[in-house]
Specification:
heterodimer, A: mainly beta, 7-stranded mixed beta sheet, 4-stranded antiparallel beta sheet, 11 strands, B: mainly beta, 6-stranded mixed beta sheet, 5-stranded antiparallel beta sheet, globular
């Protein structure tokens, strides 16, 4: 079964404590990306990756880092989280067709 | 950056009524995609429109792409409670880099 998995699904943390949200896909897709979803703003792209070791900024990259060391994984790293990064995060993959597949989401609260 | 405006933000209908959400861009779009997100869920791809004036149907859902490729609409005929969710349009700016509209939240009362 085609899957995009994210961990953790829910996370409460404090300002400044580094965290990583993992994303993994089993569809052998080259393209992966991260979005954040905030009320009234829709989904905004944070970072994307066209392939292993190839990453680029999306529309709201400040405060985030990513890495793509292997095709199936695309972790999102918050080195020093702040309360304005409280949001719902989605990982997505694309394999060349029309459809972009989204993970189940990670709800993050930064106190 | 490129923006896609979506209206209305919210609509509450009685089951059986029709529903329409509109997406507008100030620039010409190469294509537009539509997604549905159920409450507590993740966006799920519905359809992609590419051609000027294109109309596609999926059962009770009708998707249109404007002649000038600057606007799009999603129309649901005779809504059902299973249609509840937020509907997003998304502009594909290349290599699946999507710029999403702000979404229309649909609530359907039985």
């Amino acid at each position: 079964e085609a899957q995009v998995t994210q961990n953790p699904r829910y996370l409460i943390t404090v300002t400044g404590k580094k965290l990583t949200v993992t994303c993994s896909q089993n569809m052998n897709h080259e393209y992966m990306s991260w979005y954040r979803q905030d009320p009234g703003l829709g989904l905004r792209q944070i970072y994307y990756s066209m392939n292993v070791e190839v990453t680029d900024k999306g529309d709201v990259p400040e405060g985030y880092k990513v890495s793509r060391k292997e095709k199936r994984n695309f972790p999102l790293i918050l080195e020093s989280p702040s309360p304005n990064q409280t949001s719902l995060y989605f990982c997505a993959t694309w394999g060349g067709g029309e459809t972009q597949y989204f993970g189940p989401g990670t709800r993050l609260l930064v106190l | 950056g490129q923006q896609v405006m979506q209206i209305p933000q919210y609509q509450h209908v009685q089951e059986g009524e029709d529903f329409t959400t509109y997406c507008n861009s100030s620039t010409t779009l190469s294509n537009i995609q539509w997604y549905k997100q159920r409450p507590g869920g993740h966006p799920v791809f519905l359809i992609q429109l590419v051609k000027s004036g294109e109309v596609k149907k999926q059962k009770r859902l009708t998707f249109q792409f404007g002649e000038a490729k600057k606007n799009s609409s999603l129309h649901i005929t005779a809504t059902q409670t299973t249609d509840v969710g937020t509907y997003f349009c998304a502009m594909n700016t290349g290599f699946q880099k999507l710029v999403f509209g702000t979404g229309t939240r649909l609530l359907v009362s039985p």
